[in-house]
Design goal:
The complex is a heterodimer of chains A (497) and B (328). Chain A is an alpha/beta fold and 497 residues long. Chain A contains 18 helices and 20 strands. In chain B, helix 2 (48-73) runs antiparallel to helix 12, helix 7 (175-193) crosses helix 8 and helix 11 crosses helix 12. The chains are: A alpha/beta (497), B mainly alpha (328).
C-alpha cells in the first residue's frame, strides 16, 4: 500500500533559528515510526508542519497519496490525522467527555446536546482502553497531569484517526500507564494505522517502534529499521558521542540533616509522612502517579497547607504558609507541570531564569539589570539552553530547553535544598546527563536534593535512599544497597516487599 | 465575561516591558502623519494655543491610561477610573469650599482615591471577584456616592490658585503635560526597572506561576489597583482645576478611553504585554484625531465612528500579522 505520509526536502526557519533543513520523512501504514534527536533538533517542528500548524518554507508533502500545498489543522484532521502534542492542549475547564467531542457533541432529536449519550460513548471507549478510572464527567483540571495525558492520548483513538502522532507521551506517565499506551499503540498498528512516536527514552523506542528517524540540528541524519541499530549507536547518532553510565554519579559524603519531615499529613492526599534529607544527599520519592508524591512536595514548599506534622530545616522547626517563605529559607521547587506552574510563557528567557531570584537581585526594589543578565547568561551557557538570545519569549523554545530554563531558575536562586518533581521531563539524553552532573556538583557543595521521579533508571541511579509512597501512605525507605526494581514496584503498588 | 474583550498579545515576541521596534515606530509614524496632515489642512491646528490645548486634553486620558496599563499588564481591568475622576474632583472641591487649603485637600483626595483602588484589590484578591465585575461594582457605587455628596450639583467658587494648576505653564509648556510626562517616566521606570514591574508582568502571565515563584499576590494586587486609582484621582483633580469646579458627572466613560489608549499602544487584555510609551502614544493618537476632527468640522458622531474603527484596525491588523507569524 502507498505511504501515509511522504515529506521531502522540508525546511523551516524561525527568527534566528534554522529549525528544519531539507528533511525527508516517510510514514508507512502499520508502522510505528520513532522520531528522535536532541532538544531543539526540530522534532516538534516537523510534526507541526505535517499537521498544518506551521507552514513549511520549502519542500513537498503528500498525505495518503495526495499532494498537499497549504495545510491547516482542520484539513489535517479531516484527512484522518491527529496529534498529541508535548504540552497537553486540551480545554482544562471542560469535562473529559466534552474534550472528546469538542464542537461535535451528539444531539438529541430536539437539537439539544445529548449528554447521556456523549458520556456513555466516552466512558465505553475509556473502558475499552483500560482507563476505567477516568470519569468522563470529571473536569479535566481536576485530574492529575498523567490522567490528563491519558485523556489526550485517548482522544485521537476516539476520533478514529489513522495517522497518529505522539510527541513525548510518556514524559508524565508512570510504568503502568506507559503499558496502557503501548497496548493502544500495538492495537492501532495491527489495524494498519501509522504512528509517529517521539521520545527521549531509548528503551521505549526499542520496545514499541519499527523504524526510527534521527534528526540533528534540523537535519535528517538517518532512517532505519529499529532492528538495524541499538541504543548506544542511536544515542551516538543523536548526540554525536556515546553515553555510558549516565546514571552513575559520584556520591558525596553526607553532612548534617538539612530537611526533616515528621508526621506530615494532609487528608485525604497523604498522611504520616516522615523522612529526612542530609546535606549532600539525594533522596528519591517513588510512587505511582496520583500516589501523593507531588502533593507532599508542594506541602513542604508551602504551596499547599498542611493539617498536621512538622518540618524542620537544619534542626529548626518551620511552617511555611507561602512559597516565598520557602524560597527565602533556601528551598527551590521544580514542579512537574511546566506550562501551568513553572514558567511565564509570554515572558523572556531572561525573566524566566530570574523568576524566583528577583528579591535577591533587587536592592530597594530596583532590579539590578547586570545581575539579571549575568544570571541568564550563566545558566544558558551552563545548561546549554538552545535559544537565539535571552530576550526571546520562552514559549518559542523547544520543550526540553524550557525545562532546562526551569532548572536554571532554581539554580539561580541559590537553593540549599532542591525539591524536584520530575526534573528531566522532555530533556534529551545529552542534557539529562548534564543535569545529573549538575546534581552531582550540587551535592558536593552540600545541597540536599529531594527527587520525585517515576522513571526507575533515573531514581535508582541518582538517589541515596528511596522513599516509596502508595496512596498517600509511606510504604518504606529503601537504602541504596537494597535497591531492586521489583521490590520498588511492589512497594509502590501497595504490596509489602 | 471579560473574556469577550480579550485579544492575543500584540507582539510575537514580547520582550519584557520593552517595545519591539515594529509597533512603537508604527505608532510614532501615525502621530507624525496626523500632525503633518492636520497642520496642512487646518490653519488652527498648529497654533500654540491649539497645541497647548491639545496637550492639556490628552494629559487627563494619558494619566489614566498609564494606571490602566499596569492593571492590564496583570491581566486585569479597572472600570472604576472614570468614577474616581468624578469623586476626586468633588471631594477636593468640597474640602476646599469648607475652607481647607488645597495643599492639604489634594493629598487627602489622592489618599482617598488610592484607598478606593485598594478596595478593588480586596474584592479581587480576597473575595475572588473577577476584575471586570469588581470594578464595575465599584464604579456604580462611587458614582452614586458622588451624586449623594454633591446633591447632583456642581461645586463652584474654588480658590483662584487652584484653577492655575491646570491652566499654568512652565517654560511655556502646559504644566498638566509636564505632570503627565513625569508620571510617564515614573511608570516606565516602574515597569522596566523595578521588582514590582516584573511582578506585574509575571502575575499577568500566570498567577500560579507567580505564587510558586515566591511572589505574594496580595500586596501586588493592592498596589496595582491602588496605583490605577491614584493616577485616576490625580487626573480628576487636574480636570476639576481645569474646569475650576467639581463636576459630579465628570469622567463618564473615561475608563473606555484609557483602555483604548493602552490597547492601541500594544497592550493585551490577556496580560503580560504593553508598554508605557505605547500607552502615551495611544492617548496622543486618540486625542489628536478628536481635536483635528473638530477643527476640520467633522461631525462629532462621525468622529466617534472613526475612533472606534481605529481601535479595531490597530488591534485587528496586529492580530492578523500575529496569526501569520505564528504559522511562520
Ligand atoms: N514558534 C517558534 N518560534 C521561534 N522558534 C521556534 C518556534 N518553535 C520552535 N522554535 C525553535 O526551533 C527549534 C526546533 O524546535 P522543536 O520544538 O522542533 O525541537 P524538538 O526537537 O521538538 O525539541 P524537544 O526535544 O526539546 O521537544 C528550536 O531551536 C526552537 O527554539
Ligand atoms: Mg519537542
Amino acid at each position: 500500500m502507498a505511504e501515509l505520509i511522504a515529506a521531502r526536502g522540508i525546511s523551516k526557519a524561525f527568527p534566528g533559528v534554522r529549525a528544519l533543513d531539507q528533511v525527508d520523512f516517510v510514514l508507512q501504514p502499520g508502522e510505528v515510526h520513532a522520531l528522535v534527536g536532541e532538544n531543539g533538533a526540530g522534532k516538534s517542528t516537523l510534526i507541526k508542519i505535517l499537521m498544518g500548524v506551521y507552514r513549511r518554507d520549502s519542500g513537498t508533502l503528500s498525505v495518503k497519496g495526495q499532494d498537499i500545498q497549504d495545510f491547516s489543522p482542520q484539513a489535517a484532521q479531516s484527512s484522518g490525522m491527529a496529534a498529541v502534542y508535548q504540552d497537553i492542549s486540551l480545554a482544562r475547564s471542560l469535562t473529559v467527555g466534552e474534550n472528546f467531542f469538542l464542537g461535535h457533541m451528539p444531539k438529541t432529536g430536539w437539537g439539544t446536546i445529548d449528554w447521556a449519550l456523549a458520556y456513555d460513548q466516552c466512558g465505553k471507549l475509556l473502558r475499552g482502553l483500560g482507563l476505567d478510572d477516568i470519569d468522563p464527567r470529571a473536569t479535566l483540571s481536576s485530574l492529575s497531569v498523567a490522567k490528563q495525558e491519558m485523556v489526550a492520548i485517548a482522544k485521537p483513538v476516539f476520533e478514529n484517526a489513522d495517522i497518529l502522532v505522539f510527541d513525548e507521551p510518556t514524559a508524565l506517565l508512570a510504568n503502568e500507564e506507559t503499558e496502557i499506551l503501548f497496548s493502544i499503540i500495538r492495537r492501532l498498528r495491527s489495524e494498519g494505522k501509522g504512528i509517529i512516536y517521539i521520545s527521549h527514552r531509548m528503551e521505549e523506542i526499542f520496545a514499541i517502534c519499527d523504524s526510527v528517524t534521527v534528526l540533528k540540528d534540523g537535519r535528517h541524519v538517518r532512517t532505519m529499521p529499529v532492528t538495524d541499530t541499538n541504543p548506544d549507536d542511536l544515542v551516538r547518532l543523536m548526540v554525536g558521542r556515546s553515553m555510558e553510565d549516565m546514571y552513575t554519579i559520584r556520591r558525596s559524603p553526607l553532612g548534617e540533616v538539612a530537611l526533616e519531615v515528621e508526621g506530615l499529613t494532609r487528608e485525604p492526599r497523604f498522611r504520616d509522612i516522615g523522612f529526612d534529607v542530609r546535606h549532600g544527599e539525594i533522596v528519591g520519592l517513588f510512587g505511582l502517579v496520583g500516589s501523593g508524591r507531588t502533593e507532599i512536595m508542594r506541602a513542604i514548599f508551602g504551596a499547599d497547607p498542611i493539617e498536621r506534622g512538622e518540618i524542620r530545616l537544619d534542626g529548626k522547626p518551620v511552617r511555611f504558609t507561602h512559597p516565598s517563605q520557602a524560597i527565602a529559607a533556601g528551598i527551590g521547587f521544580m514542579s512537574e507541570d511546566r506550562k501551568n506552574q513553572s514558567i511565564a510563557l509570554p515572558l523572556s528567557v531572561r525573566t524566566n531564569i530570574n523568576l524566583a531570584n528577583y528579591p535577591a537581585i533587587s536592592p530597594f526594589g530596583v532590579v539590578n539589570q547586570t545581575a539579571e543578565r549575568e544570571a541568564a547568561r550563566t545558566y544558558i551557557d551552563r545548561l546549554a539552553i538552545k535559544t537565539p538570545s535571552d530576550t526571546v519569549a520562552i514559549r518559542n523554545l523547544s520543550g526540553g530547553n524550557q525545562q532546562k530554563a526551569v532548572l536554571g531558575k532554581n539554580l539561580a536562586s541559590n537553593s540549599r535544598i532542591l525539591v524536584c518533581d520530575e526534573p528531566t521531563i522532555g530533556v534529551d539524553v545529552g542534557a539529562k546527563s548534564e543535569i545529573y552532573k549538575i546534581f552531582e556538583q550540587l551535592t558536593e557543595e552540600g545541597v540536599a536534593i529531594l527527587l520525585v521521579s517515576s522513571y526507575l533508571p533515573e531514581i535508582m541511579g541518582l538517589a541515596d535512599r528511596i522513599l516509596v509512597i502508595y496512596e498517600g501512605r509511606q510504604m518504606g525507605i529503601v537504602e541504596r544497597s537494597e535497591f531492586d526494581e521489583e521490590r520498588l514496584v511492589r512497594l509502590a503498588s501497595g504490596l509489602q516487599a | 465575561m471579560a473574556n469577550i474583550v480579550k485579544t492575543k498579545p500584540r507582539q510575537g515576541i514580547t520582550v519584557l516591558g520593552k517595545y519591539t521596534i515594529g509597533t512603537s515606530t508604527t505608532l510614532m509614524a501615525i502621530v507624525v502623519i496626523l500632525f503633518v496632515f492636520l497642520s496642512s489642512t487646518s490653519s488652527v491646528f498648529a497654533t500654540p494655543e491649539n497645541l497647548s490645548n491639545l496637550l492639556r486634553q490628552t494629559s487627563i486620558n494619558g494619566i489614566i491610561a498609564l494606571g490602566m496599563l499596569m492593571v492590564i499588564i496583570t491581566a486585569g481591568i479597572d472600570l472604576s477610573v472614570g468614577a474616581i475622576v468624578a469623586i476626586a474632583g468633588i471631594v477636593n472641591a468640597l474640602l476646599m469650599q469648607a475652607g481647607m487649603s488645597m495643599w492639604v485637600s489634594m493629598p487627602l483626595t489622592l489618599v482617598i482615591g488610592a484607598a478606593i483602588g485598594v478596595f478593588n484589590g480586596i474584592l479581587i484578591h480576597e473575595v475572588s471577584i473577577t476584575p471586570f465585575i469588581a470594578t464595575l461594582g465599584t464604579l456604580t457605587i462611587v458614582r452614586g456616592i458622588v451624586m449623594i455628596m454633591s446633591g447632583a450639583r456642581m461645586v463652584a467658587n474654588l480658590p483662584k490658585e487652584f484653577g492655575q494648576i491646570a491652566s499654568g505653564d512652565i517654560f511655556g509648556i502646559p504644566s498638566m503635560f509636564i505632570i503627565w510626562m513625569v508620571l510617564f517616566v515614573a511608570t516606565l521606570f516602574l515597569l522596566n526597572y523595578t521588582q514590582l514591574g516584573r511582578n506585574f508582568f509575571i502575575i499577568g502571565s500566570s498567577k500560579e506561576v507567580a505564587r510558586l515563584s515566591g511572589i505574594r499576590l496580595r500586596p501586588n494586587m493592592y498596589a496595582v489597583y491602588g496605583l490605577s486609582s491614584l493616577y485616576a484621582a490625580l487626573a480628576g483633580i487636574l480636570l476639576s482645576s481645569r474646569l475650576s469646579m467639581g463636576v459630579p458627572t465628570a469622567g463618564i466613560s473615561y475608563e473606555l478611553d484609557a483602555i483604548a489608549a493602552v490597547v492601541i499602544g500594544g497592550g493585551s487584555l490577556f496580560g503580560a504585554a504593553g508598554s508605557a510609551i505605547g500607552a502615551v502614544l495611544g492617548a496622543i493618537i486618540m486625542q489628536t484625531i478628536r481635536n483635528g476632527g473638530n477643527l476640520l468640522g467633522i461631525d462629532p458622531f462621525a468622529l466617534q465612528v472613526i475612533i472606534g474603527a481605529l481601535i479595531l484596525i490597530a488591534v485587528g491588523v496586529d492580530q492578523l500579522r500575529m496569526r501569520k507569524a505564528e504559522k511562520g
